[in-house]
Amino acid sequence: MKKLIALLLVSAMLVTALSACTGGSSPTPAPAPAESAATATPAPATATPAPAAPAEPEPAARERITVSFQTADTVDIYDDIGTWVSDLFDIDFVPVTMEGDEMLALMGATGDLPDVFSMATFEDKNFYQWVEQGVIREIPRNMIDKYYYIQQVVDVSREATIVRDFLGGRQMYIPHPSDVVPVNIVETARIFYRKDWAENLGIAPPRTTDEFMEMMRAFTEDDPNQSGQNDRVAQPCLRNASSGCFRET
Question: pLDDT tens, 97-130?
Fold first, then answer.
């Protein structure tokens, strides 16, 4: 449309100029038709700049949440791993030290249960009471399915199946992995051994299961205390050194 209007204006200007030139006594030969009126190429239109892309919205600041959890020991949750998890998920951890189900029942009665806690058995009547009171919330299935090993534990556990059926299909807890076969678990217990015996036998700290088992054999058969007598036996010790690890026979 703009191109058509421009051509019409140019034609009108030419007609006006021709009329002014026809005045006077002597007839003036009509000029040759101007080709420009019909064949002139209009100046190219200035390209309209493309609209600027909308600015990316700044990501909303994630809200930090606080999660309290049950522990039997006084722990420093903010070691390297704890700090990494806290920063990654914007979580502030609050350990709650307690021992025994009696303390747990007391905290439940006063409304002070931690966000995450464990119970010795799914037959504990407090568990079902807290479910009916709404103290314990259902775990959404889509949340469980996001995590393969949790999903395996929940689906394989006989206990979890019994409780889920009893509660009308609601998944109210995650069973302990040690109760489930054949799901693999990671054991966090520590193993202690006699460093002086290993040094007497020239054994480097074991780094594989085979090396550890070889050290156990040597502690039993190769006179680790250099007494010349068969007076030692290798006994693995888990969690602490108070249960008589590698004690004398």
Answer: 887 778 888 888 888 889 988 887 778 888 899 9
H helical segments located in the chain: 2-20, 36-39, 80-89, 100-109, 125-133, 141-144, 148-156, 158-166, 195-200, 209-221
- What pLDDT was estimated at residue 229? 82
Residues 6+ apart with CB under 8 A from 31: 18, 21
Residues 191-202 have pLDDT tens digits of 778 889 999 999
Q: H or E stretch including 71?
A: strand 65-71
Q: What are the residues whose beta carbons fall under 8 Å from the beta carbon of 119, sequence distance 6 or more? A: 101, 104, 126, 127, 173
Interatomic CA distance for residues 219 and 198, integer angstroms: 8
The residue type of 103 is M
* CA–CA separation, 217 and 193 (whole Å): 13
How far, in Å, CA of 16 to CA of 20, rounded? 7
pLDDT confidence of residue 36: 46
Q: pTM of this prediction?
A: 0.48
| Per-residue pLDDT band at 20 (split at 50, 70, 90) | very low
Alpha carbon separation from 140 to 113, 167, 170, 194, 234 (Å, rounded): 21, 14, 9, 48, 47
